[in-house]
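Predict the holo structure. Ligand: coproporphyrinogen III.
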Amino acid sequence: MLACRRQPVDRTPVWFMRQAGRYMAEYRALRAEHSLLDICAHPELAAEVTLQPVRALGVDAAILFADILLPLAPMGIDLEFAAGEGPVIHNPIRAADDVTALRPVDPRESLGHVLEAVRLARRELDGKIPLIGFAGAPFTLASYLIEGGSSRNYEKTKRLMVGDPQTWQALMGKLARVVADYLVAQVEAGAQAVQLFDSWVGALSPDDYREYVLPHSQLILREVSATGVPVIHFGTDTATLLPLMKEAGGDVIGLDWRTPLDWGWDQVGADSAVQGNLDPVALFAPRPELERRVRAILDQAAGRPGHIFNVGHGILPETPLENVHAVVEMVHEFSVREAV
Ligand code: CP3
């Protein structure tokens, strides 16, 4: 919390994107019994998975267990997580009529199970560490809606964006409304910070970001910031977009591993905090190399207030848990030493 506001801290705080998930035996055991959507639909299960990495790793924040695609279902989207394939959308958006058919969402009604998971997780955390809520940003959600699933080149997405800008803007406007209301509802339910995931926006040029994305993310970030909680704005492959992402909003800008942390921080400016940015694949490295990389990131942050240590993108399924745990200890140990 303090780091989000660029206040001095005793040691650099650390948490990980996808800190709950398949690399953890406890999660795999639960997944053997329940589907991903099942876990998300049952607040007591979602809260339990939220707590698993807190107990196992000693991280400084919990992130709610949910998925960025959950708010699409009440909009009228038929969503499935197919084994081994990732998300599948059976009725993708292809034309203006499909956008018109998307329903508005009252998160308190149709996403009440997620809000209940926030309340339960807060209760179980008992004030020890903060709970981070999250949502997907309009571009990243639109890419799933239009492609029908994950994508490499975002061809259909960009063709709609460039070929039918009116439909694109209508879609992005609808998504921004839902996401803003959803994040504000998470804060009201008890989320103490929120992260907006624009994971795939790095597929765009700065000009396209400004025209087709920025106003929509900005609306969300403005409304959520007005609640008073710190907001983290994250994307990958965003080296050329960082100044525009900062303009869109957020107290903290997430950096992926492609961007040297000090260079990225220069891009967003000293009046923003930054989060990142260990390559998730470095978590497979032998301990001395992992340690070298953790130190390199802390050296680039150079003890300046406003650095939150994280991976540059989510933890991968095969990651050795003991290395993730070791990174928490390294960050805590090395950052205290450097502050002295
Ligand atoms: O970080 C956390 O610990 C909280 C949980 C979380 C999940 N999804 C659970 C999940 C978070 C923050 C997300 C966000 C999310 N979901 C993003 C943005 C972050 C990012 O990684 O860029 C995106 C793009 C999605 C969409 C999504 N969900 C995909 C592409 C997949 C399949 C990919 C895969 O790894 O299989 C999911 C499924 C998913 N969501 C899993 C988890 C733990 C893994 C699937 C499972 O348990 O079966």
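The two ends are 21 Å apart (CA to CA). Strands lie at 62-63, 79-82, 86-89, 131-136, 193-198, 231-235, 252-254, 273-278, 307-311.
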